[in-house]
Amino acid sequence: MKFMVLVVAVLSLLIFPGSDLARAGELTGSEIMSRAEFLEISDDMEVELKMEIIRNDQVRKREMIMQRYFGEKTEKTMVRFTAPEEVRGTGFLSITHPDGEEETWIYMPALGVERQIDSDERGEDLMGSDFTYEDIFQATEDYEYELLETVELNERKVYRVEAVPATGVVEDAVDFASQISYIDREKFYLHQVRYFDQEGEEIRRLISADVQEIKEGTYLPQKMTMENKENKGRTILTYKRVDIDIGLDPEDFSREKLSSPLD
Amino acid sequence: MTGKKKWQDKMADFWMSAVVRRRWITLSVLLLLTLIAGLGLIQVEFDDSWENWLLDEDPVMQDTERFEKIFGEEQRNFVLVESEEGIFNPSTLEYLEEVTAALEEHLPLVAEVVALPNMPYMEIADDALRIRDLIPGAIPESAEELASLEKRVQDRPGIFGDMVTEDGKGTVIIVSLQEEIPEKVYLDVEGRFNHLDQGETMEEVVLAGDVYFEDRGGMVEFGDPLMLVPPALEAILKEHTSPGISPTMAGMAIAVYEREMVLTEEMSTLLGLALLASALLMFIIFRGLRPMLAAVLVMLMTIIFLFGAQGWLGIPLAMQSLIVMMLAMVIAVGYSIHFINHFLREFLETGNRREAIHQALREVSWPIMITAITTAMGFVASTVIPSASIRIVVLNCAAAAILTYFLVMTVVPLIFILGRDQKKLRSGSERNQAWQRFMVRWADLVVSRSRWVIVGSLILVLILSFGLTRINISTDTHAMIGEEMDFIRDANYVAQRLGFLYSYHVLVELPEEGMAKQAEVLQGLEEFEEELATYPGTTATASVNDLFREINMVMNENDPDYFRVPGEEEVIAQYLMLYEMSEGEGLENWVDFGYSKLNILVQLDSTTDETLNRVLEVGERGQGFFPEGTEVSPVGEIAMLSRSLSFLARGQINSIAVALAGITLIMMLILRSIRTGLISMIGNGLPVLAILGVMGLAGIPLDILTIMISPMVIGIAVDDTVHYFLHFKKEFERTGSYREANRETFRKIGKALSSTTAVLVLGFLILSLIDIQSFKYVGQMAALGIFAALFADLIIAPPLLLYFQPYGPEREKE
């Protein structure tokens, strides 16, 4: 289910909020990139999010609550739409079992039944947005990172780190040839990512804004804008609320909960 | 008269000094120009796509442009796969899977290849909603699995109805090309690459791997990327064979490619024929090498100059460019005959080359100029037809007439000035006198039987007028090229087997954003589609409603009762959301981002005129099904064809009217008589009536090629009319008797008129030997028109002049 890929991808953006806790000495490109991955060690999260997909002055707005639980060998994700009104209550539930099998359920209030969904994940764009699976949901080991330099951006010192696919398989799978990330040198949050094609033309640019300290020493941009240079569209993600380690009950990731009325 | 004579002499003196006195300069300039034009000729490209038919400001063009901005430009081609054992057997399914994979990997500019195995299939199975390929894993082998697969396909007539033929022995591979085809690509091939010369094996054609969008050094730039697809498609199909399975290709890219092949081939055939015909005609008339050389050179240079200019200006050649070649040949021969005739008469009498050339120039430079101008006018009149490609061709033809005049005035004298003077040879001949006696008898006959002539002519006019009312207008391109061409046979076969081949889109623009999600709009869409399905030639329609029907049925336990568009707006919104969120696949093809524009695909099994005529009405009919303020427009190449249907008839009438009016005005000025000018209209009007009347009677349609016959013939035939009426006037002023004037006119110019007509008729008939159906008609009908002009001048005009007495009463014989 492509949508679930998006959900994971959107949450994965949170990989990039930075922590200034463990900075020492000169870092390599991959060290800088892995510094921020503190979310991998968190247990659960709940995010309230607004997504705006913009094309030629037309805007599609969606608001949703996403919950994610990281168990020992399972992962559970639930998304419930809160706006617009006509789709309020529509939801998705995805559970990855210890054997790697994934089950996905959808609930449509208008039909009143939840349905399991089983589909090939194909295609690249997520939910018609400007984010692609590869843009965001990339494993650090799939890329070779190089710290190019330290530059000034948004009046702050940032690392300029280049990532290129490490293997031919990855190279074939992604639509960019290289990406350059701008990571805050002090607080390790993401300022910008630029994606380039074979010819060195920039194809997309992710820009973060509205950085806030979500817990001590951890900073998170509240707004992420992905500009698509090719179709001139853009997608804005605004995190209205991000709660981490709030003790979500794994049992709540259930079909019953999926079809229960929203508050 | 004296004023004109002076002017004629001045003109002759000008050409004399240019050609004879400064012949080396003139020759150098001509050679240089030919060289420059030749360099342009190398660059000239072919483009026979329909996009050039209409003007950019045409509403259909603008609607189509808007549609393509929203939904992209669709480039679908088809491979009909037929298997003796039927589709649902392992070898056929394996073949489909293999070819699909090969096309996706090797076909240049490919976007997506869909065949049965990889068709997305949505179903509830094991209690889960599944969206996956119809054959997600290995090809089924057992009879049970195959039967279940067949049932799955048959259960979804809406989705698979188009994919399988009725007898179950044929299926289709749909090859969609990239929406945005770049203007040029770079190829990793040998330097002198010609896309039409590609072979039939994988090694000999350009495949996806050879195509680059940027020059990576040492690559060949190629300006028409779509042309790379058909040969590669053919080679890939040849590479994958399976016993009992036969593939047939069809589709727009293939049609355009094949038309270009035909065009290139026929262009060289036509050039060969034209060279042969002009040489032959000149030999028959003059029995000498120089006249042959003169006509051939003038024709070749005219073509090189015109097509070379098109090369430099970046205007591509199209099917209609053949008309330019045809015209260049006919007028090169026609104008050259005039000059050479006068030159030889003088030269044989005086033996002095220089003087003979000067005299010939005095005699012909003015009349040929008038002829060239009237011919050009006939063509310029056709620019009233609102079609870009017609305008290019008619302006080219007009330029051909003027250019041929200049070349005849320079090249032909240059050929005849070379050589020694000769002794006086002869004066007059017996054969000539026999001709004159015959013409005088003819003159007397038509006048003495004037009643018969007029009654007979009236009957003829009535019959032709009846034919005129029966004329068909056609943009059926298959009929135009001829059904016997292989690719047209293939296309017709694929269309007949699959029930579709051609398609157009209907763009529905709702007045407000989000309206496309409203239940009543979707209801209107459903009803509109039902009506569209009843139109002739329409085999199926598709729209966003197909997605709703399918998902609604699947979400309701596969219950066929739910194979309908849901009536509740919340359900619609949530289904849409599911589509947006999941595959998304398909949704953006049918409805725009803001939910205010809908796309309807209408599939056709033919492009006959009955079908196309209805396409024109789609916009107006459609509005009634949607909320007020909705715009409904048919778009795409088929809509463009329909659009051109609508202007062909009007364009033909307008172009003929403008040509006749312009030429009649010139006749009135030349003859200085309104009445005679009007009578001369008969000589110019009868050919048109003959052409269109016979076309109607013989069922020859008026199409993008045949529409140019009448204006062309008017422009050429006026030549004889000018000669006849001018001479008649002169003779009447001399003799004071209409009967005597007619007799003298016949005696003096009857032979010349008949022989030029014979030459033109023969020329056009030879050119009608080429293999394009409509072009054959152009040759035949032009020949008929030219003959009708002679008939009008030498049979109908004399009795009318005697009856109306336009130059006043006869003078008493002194």
What does this structure look like?
The complex is a heterodimer of chains A (about 260) and B (about 800). By secondary structure, chain A is mainly beta. Chain A is about 10% helix and about 50% strand. Chain A has helices spanning about 1-10, 30-35, 135, 170-175, 255-260, and strands at about 20, 45-55, 60-70, 75-85, 90-95, 100-110, 115-120, 145-155, 155-165, 180-185, 190-195, 200-215, 220-230, 235-245. In chain A, a hairpin with a 4-residue loop joins strand 3 (about 60-70) and strand 4. Chain B has 4 domains: about 1-45 and about 290-425, Multidrug efflux transporter AcrB transmembrane fold; about 75-250, no CATH class; about 430-470 and about 640-814, Multidrug efflux transporter AcrB transmembrane fold (Up-down Bundle); about 490-545 and about 555-635, Alpha-Beta Plaits, CATH 3.30.70. Chain B is built from 26 helices and 13 strands. In chain B, the strands form 4 sheets. Chain B has a 4-stranded antiparallel β-sheet, with helices on both faces. A 4-stranded antiparallel β-sheet of chain B has the order 11-12-10-13, with helices on both faces. A 3-stranded antiparallel β-sheet of chain B has the order 7-6-8, with no helix packed on it. Chain B is elongated, with a radius of gyration of 33 Å. The two termini of chain B are about 25 Å apart. The model of chain B has no long low-confidence stretch (mean pLDDT about 85). Classes of the chains: A mainly beta (about 260), B alpha+beta (about 800). The interface between A and B is medium-sized, with 32 and 33 residues. Strand 7 of chain A pairs parallel with strand 4 (about 130-135) of chain B.
